[in-house]
């Protein structure tokens, strides 16, 4: 069986199983602290992947997860710019030959390997000492908050899987927006 037929069969299987699976992402343990002239953030994200996504991962499909972070005024007008806005992208991969899960930070290209899927997902969601915003970019007389959302990046899936991911319920995984006050 050639690789394109195998991928097509996997796509069909994932499409049909996608209708019954669900997942949940949850951001918690957020700590915001000022260190010198910059605010830093630590957080943990629980990535509970759907059965569809777990099956794709175990069949060698890399999954890219994106965390969107925004620092903004509590009472911000629509056209007003945010002092900070960025995305953090990480990827989890499974290699059948070695039996290892790899977590890759796509900004720094740093890789770590794990023996179990749970250990890899825990490491994927652990983010420490993230540079958030400079104190100079904030007005001391204004209140700010930090908004975050974690989601599976469907656009980074292999091309044959994307239409199935848009139609199947097992692929739309997000934490929704959460926010925390940024104390000055």
Written overview of the protein:
By secondary structure, the chain is an alpha+beta fold. It is built from 4 helices and 9 strands, in the order αββαββββαββαβ. The N and C termini lie far apart (61 Å). The strands form 2 sheets. A 6-stranded antiparallel beta sheet has the order 6-5-4-3-8-9. Strands 1-2-7 form a 3-stranded antiparallel beta sheet. Helix 1 packs antiparallel against helix 2 (51-58). The model is unreliable at 7-22 (pLDDT under 50). It has helices spanning 3-17, 51-58, 117-125, 162-167, and strands at residues 24-35, 38-48, 63-73, 84-95, 100-105, 111-114, 126-134, 144-152, 178-182. Strand 5 and strand 6 (111-114) form a beta hairpin.
H-E order: HEEHEEEEHEEHE
Radius of gyration: 19 Å
Strand element count: 9
Total helical elements: 4
Give me the side-by-side strand order of the main sheet: 6-5-4-3-8-9
Strand proportion:
35-45%
User: Unreliable runs, pLDDT <50, ≥5 residues?
Assistant: 7-22
Structural class by helix and strand composition = alpha+beta
Calculate the terminal CA-CA distance, rounded to whole Å. Answer: 61 Å
**Shape, principal axes of CA atoms:** globular
Level of helix content? Answer: 10-25%
Main sheet overview: 6 strands, antiparallel
Rounded mean pLDDT score: 87
What's the quick description here?
The chain is an alpha+beta fold and 184 residues long.
Q: SSE layout and pairings?
A:
Elements (H helix, E strand, L loop, with lengths): L2 H15 L6 E12 L2 E11 L2 H8 L4 E11 L10 E12 L4 E6 L5 E4 L2 H9 E9 L9 E9 L9 H6 L10 E5 L2
Features:
184 residues, alpha+beta, three-stranded antiparallel β-sheet, 9 strands
